[in-house]
Every structure is written in C-alpha cells, then in structure tokens.
Amino acid sequence: MQVILNIENPKDWTALLPIIERLGISVLTTIPVPKENKRLTVKELAYHQAIIAQGGDASYFGDAAEWQKEQRQERDLPFLYNDNQ
Fold first, then answer.
1. Which of 4, 31, 49, 74 is most buried by its number of CB atoms within 10 A?
2. What is the pTM of this model?
C-alpha cells in the first residue's frame, strides 16, 4: 500500500516521525527530513573529542593579513558612477 502525505507544518512531521519509525514504515520524501538530535554514546563522543583535540593544520593558508590587503585594494566599482552626469 502507498500513501502520500502533504505535511505543511514541520512540527506535525516531528510528531509523526517517531510513530512512523516505530511501525517500521519506509519514508520517501522530496525534501530533506530533519531528524531529532540523538545523543552520542560515550564511545562516539570520545571518538569525536579525540579528532577535535588533534587540531588542524592551517599552515597552508598563508598570511591572512596579506590576503585581506589584496582583496581590499582600491578599484573602480561597477555602476557606481554614471557617465551621463
């Protein structure tokens, strides 16, 4: 059996989703379906914290101040001045 639902209110979808999941009904949507935030297990949390603790390598970014100076150089802006004036 196939049923098509048009749900306008996201809160209605949030209320309906746990029932759908509990009944084992498959869902096909045309837009991404937000799921409730699930809590991480202790093992998952430790895994993600270890990645964060390693930090990141930003050495390949170069000099941020130099990049900003290049991006903010003086130049003519289009449509700022009208030649007819």
1. 49
2. 0.34
